[in-house]
What we know:
The complex is a heterodimer of chains A (110) and B (108). Chain A is mainly β and 110 residues long. In chain A, the strands form 2 sheets. In chain A, strands 2, 4, 5, 6, 9, 10 and 11 form a 7-stranded mixed sheet that branches. In chain A, strands 1-3-8-7 form a 4-stranded antiparallel sheet, with no helix packed on it. In chain A, strand 9 and strand 10 form a beta hairpin. Chain B has 108 residues and is mainly beta. Chain B has a single domain, classed as Immunoglobulin-like. In chain B, the strands form 2 sheets. In chain B, strands 2, 4, 5, 9, 10 and 11 form a 6-stranded mixed sheet that branches. Chain B is globular, with a radius of gyration of 13 Å. The termini of chain B are far apart. The interface between A and B is medium-sized, with 23 and 18 residues.
Amino acid sequence: DAGITQSPRYKITETGRQVTLMCHQTWSHxxxxxxxxxxxxxxxxxxxxxxxxxxxxxEVPDGYVVSRSKTENFPLTLESATRxxxxxxxxxxxxxxxxxxxxxxxxxxx
Amino acid sequence: GIQVEQSPPDLILQEGANSTLRCNxxxxxxxxxxxxxxPWGQLINLFYIPSGTKQNGRLSATTVATERYSLxxxxxxxxxxxxxxxxxAQTGAxxxxxxxxxxxxxxx
Lengths: 110, 108
């Protein structure tokens, strides 16, 4: 168990809708991350958080919003979903032994 | 950001064979990890190895930080080893940069 849980595992949404992907960690590691995985691009960082109420942009932040009111939770919101946001989304946390990843959310925007 | 290159891109092995996967990175690192993405899409952390050598069962990894490369060795491969192996590196900033992976297929 990596100690990091994502939900839902699968999501289909329509273009223009708002959708939130959830990420929860056991314990209270400071750093948490959101990545997306696309064919031909590998994994790319969307946003990260160094602590509660501290977030910062990664490589591909446009169209996404994050919040971190509690250390354990790091939700990712697509404010108005587009087809280009169809992807697999991974949440991660950083420990003294590197990054560990959740099981991912496969999001399809139709 | 740091550039991470992996080779080979694809590898097909007979069960029981050994293999070596390579990862080159373009800058000094404070974190180097190997992951296995299984056929269900899960990213499994294999090694946290910014330098030195580690072994875990049939898998071992070596990172030569001064020469900016890391190697992942798989011995006596099994069909369950199939999947994509990613190398990822971090240098200072809060981002783990991934290579494009090596897709391993182990055939019985």
